[in-house]
Amino acid sequence: VTCAVLNYSFLLQAFYRYVTVVYPTRLFWQRKRNQLFFVGITWSYALLFPLVFVFTGQIVYNADNQICQIPLKLSVSIILAALCVYFIPVVMTVIIYWKLVHYVHEMNQRTTSVNRITRAQRELKMFRRTVTLLMILFVIDFPYALFIFMSFLNRAPQYHFRIAYIFIDIALACVMVALFQFTDPLKQSIKQHLCL
Question: SS in 3 state form for the chain?
């Protein structure tokens, strides 16, 4: 659930950046109420889609890893979970990013106001940071995806979840370091508190 919330929040940020750059005069998408609505939809989806697996009895206890999860084997449920949690939000975020880069490149070719170009470039910079964070998660969480793929062909290693969990923890630590690096006010505040 938390991975789904994280990936879909990146997708929601990407969508917001795209709308503010491509349609800056359409304030409907930028209203606080609408943003809260989209966040609510994202959280609701992330919390509700796993219930399908709970109510159909597809989640079982794995004694080796001491966790309840969908068994790693070739099944519709594991493919659906992988698609819903990782593949769909990551691919959609990359597509939005590609469209935004293409739009800013076209805007630079056309004659437009300096303020609009500056704003678009600033949003593009923020968007690149979001994609960087998403790629950190995608690359470092690759072992779990590999274990899922291995389970389709043969059988996942006995302690696959523990191994994957180490990589997930490392990914989240890398995300925190990247967020620290990207956020200047946070960096300055911590430096002041640590007297650096």
Answer: CHHHHHHHHHHHHHHHHHHHHHCCCCHHHHCHHHHHHHHHHHHHHHHHCCHHHHHCCCCEEECCCCEEECCCCCCHHHHHHHHHHHHHHHHHHHHHHHHHHHHHHHHHHCCCCHHHHHHHHHHHHHHHHHHHHHHHHHHHCHHHHHHHHHHHHCCCCCCHHHHHHHHHHHHHHHHHHHHHHHCHHHHHHHHHHCCC
